[in-house]
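task queued by scheduler; priority normal; single chain, no ligands, no partner chains; default sampling; output format set to structure tokens
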Amino acid sequence: MSRIQSARLFVVAALFAIAACQRETPLAPPSKLAVPGGGLPGFPGTVTDLAVDAVTQNSATLSFTEVDDGLGQPARYVVRFAEPPIDWGSARDVTEGTCSTPVVGTEVGARVTCTVLGLASSTTYDFQVEAYRSTLDLVETSGDPSNVAEGTTGAASCDCWTEKADMPTWRYSLGVADISGTLYAVGGYQAYGRYTAAVEAYDPASDTWTARAPMPTARSYLGVAVVDGILYAVGGSNRGTVEAYDPATDTWTTKAPMPTALSSVGAAKLDGLLYAEERVGGSGMSSPRPLRAYDPGSVRSYHRHLD
């Protein structure tokens, strides 16, 4: 037998020996993937406490408690929204704001807050969130959609005028003042020499008018101002009359008249004093008449000339 034949026989014998050993030694089963806390990999958890914390004209702030991704780690999240009722399959992913996909979790059990932008004003929306994990950014495993949270955005604001309830008594050249958020329309002119003593109160919250006790003296072009919650009607129609209105009792009180009768009066409060000035004279020219100051506390009046 040649040396080459002997080598071939040796290799064949060795291969048979290895095969025999493999048949006698069973293969070990593959090891299971370890998950922190024990158990096998599963689906990400389900958020159950999604809430709308705040809304503005075009946004909503959401919050929820983080869940695990099925491997014991913080999950990632998709947030979707739609007008009610929401259907997860057809709802839109958030693409504006910090709720845009993906919302990346940081700690299981922590509270997450994010904002949805680009919403329409005065609109009700449903929101849902779904946890998922991503493997090598190629394979995604998702949990179930969360509870539904609902919110309504605020009304649109604009640099524009809005029509409100008409004043019950038609008039012009009246006085208007604010007392604790209520507007008071006082006196005025109705045409053909007719002055009115009407007083009406407007509530902006309800857009309604209420008739109040009329002034003792009907007049127009008067000045009105509020000092310590009391409305003062000053001058007007070339009068020096001063009358005070208390909204708490719906009553008028006549006060000391001004020394000089005034028409087209402007009135204002400053440092507890009531100031009154005639804005134009009867001829339509600027009036040189003095600025008057009235002290409600001492019931005295005095005047100063303007420089």
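post-processing summary
- DSSP finds one helix and 23 strands in the chain.
- The chain has two domains: 51-152, 175-304.
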